[in-house]
Design a protein that fits this description.
globular, transmembrane helix
């Protein structure tokens, strides 16, 4: 009698709150498949809108940084975790988006950010051409060449980039509303972030996402199965670069001043660290990885402040050491990243305290 009662409660709990078995593509592409999931989704959206009212200025500034980094990291997640293509030139695309947005700042800030993403996406198609012939380490070197080329252009093409002095942007405006600080700019970030994140979620669950997974797992088998490798790889590079360009434009409007030093190779390595630490190929992994990597300098700043200002010069070196150690640590102990760790915790509490 008790066993049958517990079984009935478990089944009812599972049908109401736990993920159901997805038998159709429509169910598989759903953003939230349970009533509880839909409740959490709407709650999260409401909290995002109200966030500037709940946080002080500096924590809000850090949250905006995390949101922008999440957009850029999501682009690299789609490329590396989705299509299995390695890129070390991600910072170049952020720079392209940032410098494009700097020429259409102020009242045209939203247009400049969007055009920066489009231009970065077009250049991403060009970068993706080597992936049709090479892969792995050789492809990483090819993308590294773009990073060095972009760094040279950012410093030398003074008419467009301002050279090593960079460019200064006026405060962004949208629909006549000025956005002079992070609190106001948050809503412009949400204007781009929410559609991009929902699109990425749907994309990974769609036919195009499954084609990317096939290319990632074994491109030769995917080709023999009828997958158009040229279209799949170039699309992955274009969308990844588009996301990076949008993130770069938002970053420029947040900083209000950009220089070539904002888009060096170290920046690309940071985004690669976000992919590895967060967990490649998932939308949640982009957010977790970006949050983790952006908060590391803040934690190190607090530690340096606690020990004294004499340790400040070693801050940058220690930050790079921490980034490298994190990549190695997650590769060895948690290949799936923070999203894998979160998945195990979620699965444990999903049926707790029911017997199965």
């Amino acid at each position: 009698m008790l066993f049958r009662l517990s079984q009935t409660l478990t089944d009812r709990y599972s049908r109401t709150f736990a993920r159901t078995v997805r038998a159709t593509y429509r169910q598989d592409e759903a953003y939230a498949s349970t009533p509880l999931g839909r409740l959490w989704l709407w709650t999260a959206l409401v909290l995002l809108v109200m966030l500037p009212l709940l946080l002080p200025p500096y924590p809000m500034y850090v949250v905006v940084l995390i949101a922008i980094a999440s957009i850029g990291a999501l682009g690299l997640h789609l490329l590396v975790g989705g299509a299995g293509q390695i890129s070390l030139g991600h910072a170049a695309f952020l720079g392209i988006g940032a410098y494009t947005a700097s020429h259409l700042a102020g009242p045209l800030a939203a247009v400049g950010i969007l055009l920066g993403g489009v231009l970065a996406g077009l250049i991403g198609i060009v970068l993706g051409l080597p992936s049709l012939r090479i892969k792995g380490t050789y492809l990483a070197i090819a993308t590294l060449a773009l990073q060095f080329l972009a760094d040279y252009v950012f410093k030398r093409w003074e008419a467009v980039t301002g050279g090593i002095r960079g460019r200064t942007l006026p405060p962004a405006e949208f629909l006549g509303i000025s956005m002079p600080n992070a609190d106001a700019l948050w809503y412009l970030v949400l204007l781009f972030a929410i559609p991009l994140f929902f699109y990425a979620k749907r994309l990974l669950s769609s036919r195009a996402g499954r084609l990317w997974y096939a290319v990632r797992d074994n491109d030769l088998s995917a080709r023999l199965s009828g997958v158009d490798l040229t279209r799949a790889k170039l699309t992955a590079f274009a969308i990844s670069a588009f996301y990076a360009g949008i993130a770069g434009g938002l970053l420029a409007n947040l900083y209000k001043s950009i220089t070539p030093d904002n888009f060096v190779l170290t920046f690309s390595i940071q985004y690669l660290a976000m992919v590895i630490v967060g967990g490649a190929g998932t939308v949640l992994g982009a957010v977790l990885g970006a949050t983790f990597i952006v908060l590391i300098p803040e934690v190190l700043n607090a530690i340096v402040g606690a020990f004294g200002p004499q340790f400040a010069p070693s801050f940058a070196a220690w930050r790079n050491v921490v980034f490298g150690a994190l990549i190695l640590l997650f590769l060895i102990l948690e290949p799936l990243g923070l999203v894998g760790l979160w998945g195990r915790i979620r699965d444990y509490f999903r049926t707790w305290p029911l017997p199965y």
